[in-house]
Design a protein that fits this description.
Chain lengths: ~300, ~280
């Protein structure tokens, strides 16, 4: 047995060995990634009748999707959510990394402070912020009452509930992306930075013309990750707003969850899932195109 | 004249660096203030939790109450068990796949690699509805295995290990071959020991991700038998239970304490792991 596993037979047929090594991974990916995607295509376009046969329903679900005001709301909300949280947390992350990379006083405290929110589960972070937003005794309103603004219901008002979620997301994510910028800053070639220092005395000019281009691959990586997170992380909705009031703060994945597990409409959830997958495919295509053209690797 | 302007620029640099430090500190304090506030609320009972009176006595009543109101011990055991099962399975599956992709030449290798990388885009989070039905058919709803299954074949883990194995010197591989070792023995005796830093990095990233995971465990667990601490905390904090802020803060702290402790012990490795994971 030992001989069989550890030695000769594989030498002549290395491909047998390779496929055996890949078998567990491919089986699991097949069951939990590829098949579910194929299934959602199938259940979007067919509906099963009671007798076990299936009925082609064509684009009914797709039309339904386009006419569903809640879905449209979730989609536009998600677009605003990404448009605001992604750039803000990336810029904050870069600023934090630049600070932590300098010899500031209490540098390790700063780094820990920025990074800690990242470690919390989103649910725990949402619990903390629930209290922050509480209309009567919450910290935010108590702070604002100093300026004479009182009793504002941040999570209960359709105008502010999505914004309240965005703040939490930025707080939670900036420190995570800081780590990647910090790693990139520490691996910048020091002779290049030194040469730039001699060439130009302006910090801002050096930052724009030398540091930023060198950080471009990191920026792309962080941007794509932030963008994906904007579509796949909805844990805080369960605690803070449940998508409300009146769907004012609902996001795509949260609506998929509601459709599948509250309304028990699996085919419609599948159609929404396909839509979300298309969005993510678009993000990946964007990443691919940008990493080919705009980002200069060394 | 030139000396004067040099002095001026030195002063402006000094002013810049002082305001820079100040700004960094203000933001950092702002960033941890919610956490400090939670700590305060958890240590003060009743109305003292929401006022900042330093003369109020510190008490651990909230923790005791939180612990009595919800089975946090059970939740933490569940989280620990499902995260451990998942990590062990991930390491096994990803090591084998990463090794085949890095060091065995076979037709279709690139196609397989691209197929695996697809999972970076098609994440299990998105497929909750389909995956729930499949796990239900397997009869694994409300079990540790059910929580772990969709995440075991991690494209990220396979990719990370493939990169690591690829960077190891081919001479070591050849030497082991001449010694008469087969491919599996070479993996176990040569590659795995040398990849320890990557394993540590991956383990820390995986544990912190799955310790905090919420949506999938929420879907796939029904009872205390398997419910992890994130889901337990969400139930504990829901308005129907009527817990006050102090108790909720205490519960939140109980939920995050183990991961926070691991982080504070391994702080350097933690940061390093995330960096390694990001660069690769």
């Amino acid at each position: 047995m030992r001989n069989f596993l550890f030695t000769s037979p594989w030498r002549r047929q290395p491909w047998v060995f390779a496929w055996l090594c890949l078998l567990p991974a491919l089986t699991l990916l097949g069951a939990f990634t590829y098949l579910p995607v194929i299934n959602s295509i199938f259940s979007s376009f067919f509906s099963s009748t009671g007798s076990g046969s299936t009925l082609y329903t064509g684009f009914d679900n797709v039309h339904y999707l386009a006419d569903d005001p809640v879905f449209i709301k979730a989609l536009t909300n998600n677009a605003w959510y990404a448009l605001f949280t992604v750039p803000t947390s990336v810029i904050l992350a870069l600023t934090m990394a630049l600070w932590v990379n300098q010899k500031l006083k209490g540098r390790s405290f700063l780094r820990l402070g920025f990074f800690l929110p990242t470690l919390l589960p989103m649910v725990a972070a949402a619990n903390v912020w629930l209290f922050f937003y509480e209309p009567n005794i919450g910290l935010l309103n108590r702070f604002l009452s100093v300026f004479g603004i009182n009793g504002y219901n941040w999570l209960g008002d359709p105008d502010t509930s999505l914004g309240a979620l965005m703040m939490l997301t930025i707080w939670k994510e900036a420190g995570f992306f800081m780590i990647f910028y910090l790693a990139a800053l520490q691996s910048l070639p020091s002779d290049l930075i030194e040469a730039a220092r001699l060439e130009s005395p302006s910090r801002w000019y050096r930052f724009r013309k030398v540091v930023m281009p060198l950080l471009a691959p990191t920026t792309l990586f962080v941007l794509i990750n932030a963008l994906i997170n904007a579509f796949k992380l909805v844990d805080h909705l369960f605690i803070l707003t449940k998508g409300g009031p009146n769907n004012a703060s609902t996001l795509l994945l949260y609506y998929i969850y509601e459709t599948a597990f509250s309304y028990l409409d699996q085919p419609y959830a599948a159609t929404q899932t396909l839509f979300l997958l298309a969005v993510l495919a678009l993000v990946s295509a964007l990443q691919f195109a940008l990493s080919r053209n705009k980002v200069h690797y060394q | 004249m030139s000396i004067n302007s040099a002095k001026g620029s030195a002063a402006s640099i000094k002013w810049f660096s002082a305001s820079n430090t100040l700004a960094a500190w203000v933001l950092a304090l702002l960033w941890i203030s919610p956490l400090l506030y939670m700590l305060w609320a958890s240590l003060h009972t009743g109305s003292a939790a929401i006022t900042f009176d330093l003369s109020e006595p510190i008490s651990l009543d909230n923790f005791q109450q939180a612990w009595q109101m919800a089975p946090f011990t059970r939740y933490l055991i569940n989280t620990f068990a499902s995260v451990s099962i998942l990590l062990i399975a991930q390491l096994l599956v990803c090591t084998l796949a990463g090794y085949a992709l890095a060091r065995v030449k076979f037709t279709g290798r690139n196609v397989v690699f691209v197929l695996i990388l697809l999972q970076l885009m098609v994440m299990p989070e998105i497929l909750i509805s389909e995956n729930y039905q499949f796990i239900a058919q397997l009869g694994a709803v409300d079990s540790y295995l059910g929580i772990a299954l969709p995440y075991i074949a991690s494209a990220f883990g396979i990719f990370l290990l493939r990169q690591t194995f690829k960077q190891m010197p081919q001479e070591l591989h050849d030497a082991a071959r001449i010694e008469g070792l087969g491919p599996l023995a070479i993996l176990v005796k040569v590659y795995v020991p040398l990849a320890k830093p990557t394993y540590l990095a991956y383990a820390l990233v995986s544990v912190s991700y799955h310790w905090n995971n919420f949506l999938w465990p929420l879907v796939i667990t029904n009872t205390e038998a398997s419910r992890p601490v994130t889901v337990g905390l969400a139930l504990f904090g829901s308005p129907e239970t009527g817990v006050d802020w102090g108790v909720l803060s205490a519960g939140t702290l109980i939920a995050i304490a183990p991961l926070l402790a691991i982080f504070l012990i391994f702080q350097r490795q933690f940061m390093q792991s995330f960096m390694t994971a990001g660069i690769k």
